[in-house]
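Example 266, ligand zinc ion.
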Amino acid sequence: MFVRLLPCSFHRIPKSDDLPDSQPLTSFVVRGAQGAGPLAIDAGSLGLVGEAEDMARVREVLLTHAHIDHVATLPMWIEAVLSKDRAPVKVHATAPTIQALREHFFNNVIFPNFEQLTEADGRALMEFVEVPVEKAFEIAGFHVQGFNVEHPVPTTGYYVTDGQDGVIFAADSGPTERLWEVVATAPNVRAVVLETSFPDWMDHIAMSAGHLTPNLLKRELEKAPEGLRILVAHLKPAYRAEILRSIDLLEDRRIQFIEPGAEVEL
Ligand SMILES: [Zn+2]
Ligand SMILES: [Zn+2]
């Protein structure tokens, strides 16, 4: 099973340090055994990666929540996929996320309402597909289960498995118990993708906004089983170096930073 954090920023040339590249927008692409995937989790930068053909290789997207850093480039991705076959582009998300996107994004103001735009034969350009929470479903050859996490808007983490291996995308979330219950019961979980958005001195903001700091990450890891890989992403670019230093000081061997662009094999 492979997980890739999609890049979204220009490379610093030459790289001024050995830190992972800045990553203000979030999208992952997961591929599994027996042809499962590619499945995109979130579309922060999905519509920025490469030429239209590159973007169109991903045919399914599953959203964790409606915040702009996770949906910003949905329109560009949808346009890249549109004419590749005769089926409408499908965007999978929970009901509250779909409602937020209809009201605030595809509302004929910020962007055209692609659900109402049809071809001459009446075929819609885009469909939202509602996914359940706490109930299994299938998408792009993967078995998936969503669960609620702690964030100011309705936000869903996902356990994604190809039947052999599994990975959990915890999305944006402050401290959570439900995530670790899912880890304890989901078979073959190889890794959990966690966020660490703010440095420790911003813990008040982190807690109010439903995010983690390195200290809060440490407390989450006390709930994690030995041997589980923790893939850290979603570092706010302005505090990236500081967050990385603090996480290094935790000296927890389970932690690995995801480099934008690289594919991690689980
Ligand atoms: Zn968020
Ligand atoms: Zn976010």
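Summary: The chain has a mean pLDDT of 92.
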